[in-house]
Amino acid sequence: HRPLPPMLPNGQEEQIIGKEVGKEENVNCNDEKMTKIEQKPQVVSIKNMVYVDVIIPVHNASNTIEEAVSSAMNQVLPPSFLEKEKMKFSRMDVAVCCYDDGSKDNSFDILKRLEEKYNDAHVIGQKLNEECTIVSRLLIDSAKNKDNKKTVGQSRGAGYARNRAASLRKKDNIDKDNHYFLCLLDSDDVMHPTRIVEQVTYMLSLDQNDCDRTLLGCKFVREPEDSTWHYTQWANGLSDERLHLEQFREITILQPTWMMSRKRFEELGGYIEAPPPQNNDVENGAGCQHGYQQQQQQPTTAYKLVHPQYDTNETLRLAEDLRLFYAHLQSNGRLKLLRTATNVPLVTYRHTPNMTQSS
Question: In tens digits, what is the pLDDT along the chain, a chain of 359 residues?
Fold first, then answer.
């Protein structure tokens, strides 16, 4: 097989080159000869290619963000997946997308340091076996004022930060025939090394319609262990039927374990956002109830869970996960909790005193 070319920086995707196209030359990358072409990049589908964007909102997370990012950047195959018949993709492109929402600490400085570290080390990625390669990159941005300077202390909320993180990857060169998923994580949580592969593999086992309608979660472990132990036990023990039946008691799938198709996220219009404050100079190009939808200029079929009388600018900053969860269900969505063969939780859900996810 011809070896896969390296990932290009800044969201420019690779291409597979035929012998009859343009002028070719051999280049060496990681001691493997590869073929490159001197012409404008074009969109060419790679068989069984999967894209995953890990969405991490950041707000005053200097004590935890490095571990969260590292856990997402270093995903591997479960040992059992080394068997060829279990592989449902040949190449996975992971973008860890972090958006700093007005942090007062040095969270963004840490992100900039990690960006330099990982863009050098992970741009080629890791060849896991003869059948599969995972590549990863870190994409970062922060809230800016009208002078394009980072804002400090002015938080727009977790929904706003997640929408901005979901917009960081350039999608112009991504073939629409490739599978594309969003994976949620909070800046104080940690994903276990096989989480992305196991969730993606399950999503790819569904037919296309079910894949596009499924909100997939996974089991998690709480840290400290005795914090909200009753919720942990309840959420990890729900059957498929109870995921739907108990939806009005509580969100039955914990947000930092979510995975969904990007198509589904765009259909729902992303997270609801509060309008920007009236008396500040924060960039407000997408401050609206469905900020992601307006930013991407795409229609939404979402059920908008906003009360016309009782919701205010402040309440719209809250419960962004609850609103998207119910919008998904109102739009004929499905719920699924992934139970791995080893029954091992795939996320560590932390309780961090005096730290919030922007809200």
Answer: 333 334 444 443 333 223 333 333 443 434 443 333 334 434 434 567 899 999 999 999 999 999 999 999 999 888 777 665 566 788 899 999 999 999 999 999 999 999 998 876 555 455 555 567 888 999 999 987 666 777 776 788 899 999 999 999 988 778 888 899 999 999 999 999 999 999 999 999 999 999 999 999 999 999 998 888 899 999 999 999 999 999 988 899 999 999 999 999 999 999 988 777 665 444 433 334 455 555 554 545 455 677 777 888 777 777 889 999 999 999 999 999 999 877 889 999 998 765 554 33
Residue 244 Cα distances to 182, 205, 326, 331, 332, angstroms: 22, 21, 11, 14, 12
Residue given tokens 């960039």 in the structure block: 283
- C-beta of residue 261 within 8 angstroms of C-beta of residue 211: yes
Question: Are the C-beta atoms of residues 219 and 337 closer than 8 Å to each other?
Answer: yes
Q: Which pair of tokens denotes residue 178? A: 């490739």
Q: Please check whether residue 180 is in contact with residue 203, taking contact to mean a CB–CB distance below 8 angstroms.
A: no
Which residue type, as a one-letter code, is found at position 352?
Answer: T
- List % helix, strand, coil for the chain (3-state, nearest 5): 30, 25, 50
**Helical pair 65-73 and 107-121, crossing angle rounded to 10 deg:** 20
Q: How far is CA 270 from CA 267, 275, 294, 328, 347, in A?
A: 8, 15, 10, 10, 23
Q: Phi and psi at residue 35, in whole multiples of 5°?
A: -110, 130
